[in-house]
Amino acid sequence: MYPADSMAVILIVLVVILAAAVAILIWRGRGSKRLKSHFGPEYARALEESGSRRAAEERLRRREARVQSYAIHPLSPDQRARFAARWRTLQAEFVDDPAGAVSAADQLLGEVMATRGYPVIDFEQQAADLSVEHPQVVQNYRTAHEIALRHAKGQASTEDLRRAMVHYRSLFEELATEPHMRAAS
Questions:
Q1: Region for residue 161 given its phi and psi (left: phi exceeds 0; alpha: psi -120 to 50; beta: otherwise)
Q2: What is the DSSP-derived secondary structure letter of residue 178?
Q3: pTM (2 decimals)?
Q4: In this structure, are residues 119 and 129 in contact, taking their beta carbons and an 8 Å threshold?
Q5: 18, 49, 68: which is the final residue of a domain?
Q6: pLDDT tens, position by position, 42-66
Q7: Structural domain span for residue 13
Q8: Are residues 81 and 148 in the same domain?
Q9: How confident is the model at residue 4 (pLDDT cuts 50, 70, 90)?
Q10: Per-residue pLDDT tens for 102-128?
């Protein structure tokens, strides 16, 4: 081989390596952009919890894969009507028993999630699973749950409980309505 041939081979190998590196960076950038766009505030939360972009994105990808393995389905019209009637009843009960209504709302959401096919194990797992398909309202769920926990310690006011109900309602509406109905509202 001539020295010029060796240089050409080295140059070609370097160009191929550089092109592969650029392609990987573009692919990762698109993946990051997709995750940021899809998860919204939950992306920032995962980033804050994990301390690194790579770890946060891996955590979110694992969530997506886990939730894909679930048999999640919309509520039937009968289930939707039954849950909606229960929601209206507990909202009316808020006037006389705010704490009881908040507790009942939390339980009702657990039932709706279980009926839809989400495993109802513990709160953090439920919130993580919900973040995959309902990233815009999962923070409402976290906030409402935190208020309910503070109330159990005697540290939440009636106004806090009202806020919890508002947050629970947004998640309830998200979970109990048909996807095409949410898009129209």
A1: alpha
A2: -
A3: 0.73
A4: yes
A5: 68
A6: 888 888 888 888 898 998 999 899 8
A7: 3-68
A8: yes
A9: low
A10: 999 999 999 999 999 998 888 888 899
